[in-house]
Amino acid sequence: MIRNKLPAVLLAVACLSPVAAWAQTDTVKGIERYRELLADGNPAELWEARGEDLWKQKRGPKMASLESCNLGKGPGVVKGVYAELPRYFKDTDRVMDLESRLLHCMTGIQGLDGEAIKRTAFGAGTNRSDMEALVAYVTSQSKGVRMRVPTSHPKEKQAYAMGEKVFFYRGGPHDFACATCHGESGKRIRLQDLPNLLDRKDAQRAYTTWPAYRVSQGELRTFQWRLFDCFRQQRFPALEFGSDASIALTAFLAKNANGAAFNAPAIKR
Amino acid sequence: MADPMRIRATVKDGKVDVRLLMSHEMETGQRKDARGELVPAWFIQNVTATYGGRTVLSAQWGPSISKNPYLNFRFSGAKLGEKISVTWTDNKGDKRTDEATITAG
Fold it and tell me: Which residues contact A262 (CB under 8 A, 6 or more apart)?
């Protein structure tokens, strides 16, 4: 017992060290090492497997599979599609991200209730989300693919510009914008380093590691959830699932990650 | 019924490396829900891995194991292309068995 206590005492002393910068980099290294250790055996794989099943299964009132769903590269193609989303879709005449496009297919092709899907878009324990599983499967098929989000169509340009506006828009009881926390390097919440989303490297690393399995929640979270939760932390009105604002902000952040290899579903604390 | 496990088994120099993920809530029985009521304990109690009718791993688990647990173990004496089978049983009596073919490592 005495032998076990010694390192704990040393650690406590180390934490009191006045060299804050040293403690900070050490924490960052600690978190990185934690992620590394968890990377093998990422439970996101369980979501990917369930999502693949859901993709291929004949479901809904129309008893159809999603294999005729066009995510941008033709009906049924999932390989590499996430690296080019959000993008403009001719059939709906709007820019869509993966989640809103899946919602479009699930309601259109399978005849499922869109409002019900939106209500259960974020899973909690035994109330599981089919959306999160499908996103896990589709995004896993883009692992290693370079981000190439298009902005050639006028509506894509418009979405990007709108997303940029949302990013800098200050409001809510705290007078916060996304940029308040994510517009400068070296910011953090508690011990979590916050990516500066205006910095190319940071933006690439942040975007290409979502969706992710959140260990603290035991759930796989999609990019729509990431934005939803940022809005909640800003004390903004709830961000509606698949809304134009959410897609525009995704388009802005996704495009800024262009050129980097997609590397998710990842794992986060 | 519970979701299937994800099992990967690779063999190198006669040693098999088994990595598996299980889908389970693993409730400790200590947590309270939004209404302040205790969430009943619900966790995997027994894990058994068998190869060719021989038990190669037998474990008793408790509520301190994480949600969606990951397990990594090694054993020797298995051949390429043969199957390993893993079974878990939880405290509600729910059970799940999955198999995987051993591939080259």
Answer: A82, A83, A139, A142, A143, A144, A145, A146, A147, A208
